[in-house]
Amino acid sequence: MAKEILQYSVMVEAALRAVARQALTEVAEAGLPGNHHFYITFRTAYPGVQVPEYLKARYPAEMTIVLQFQFYDLHVDDTTFSVTLTFNNAPERLVIPLRAITVFADPSVNFVLPFQPAEVPLEEAPAVAKPKTVPDKAAKAVEDGEKSGEVVSLDKFRKK
Fold it and tell me: Out of 20, 63, 116, 148, which residue is the most buried by the measure of CB atoms under 10 Å away?
């Protein structure tokens, strides 16, 4: 008889995703306190992700959104969050499964949660292309407090 082992890495990953979910839930209920803001990177091709086709075409593998100044109608449930953001001066509704998130960060307090890519059943797994990034000037604009609908690469926030 084979001995079963506890899968601690799976438990830790679930607990960390619960932290991101709780932060999003608190913001959905009470708004962003102080200087808090979120950078959320997610896999655009993950099953259940709903983003406009032009954004999926531009970011076929990963995309980062910023929840800071201009986001609306944030809703969180057990498995997904949804939010309305403005792209090209048009409001767009995004629906993102929590398991699609690869990085959750709050730069205002130097907080970053990198996640292992969630497993996707083989029959649902899409082909993954290399993610595109935006120029550093977009990241600088966000850091300087400019209101922007730009998607920003989180590479500079990731631990090397």
Answer: 63
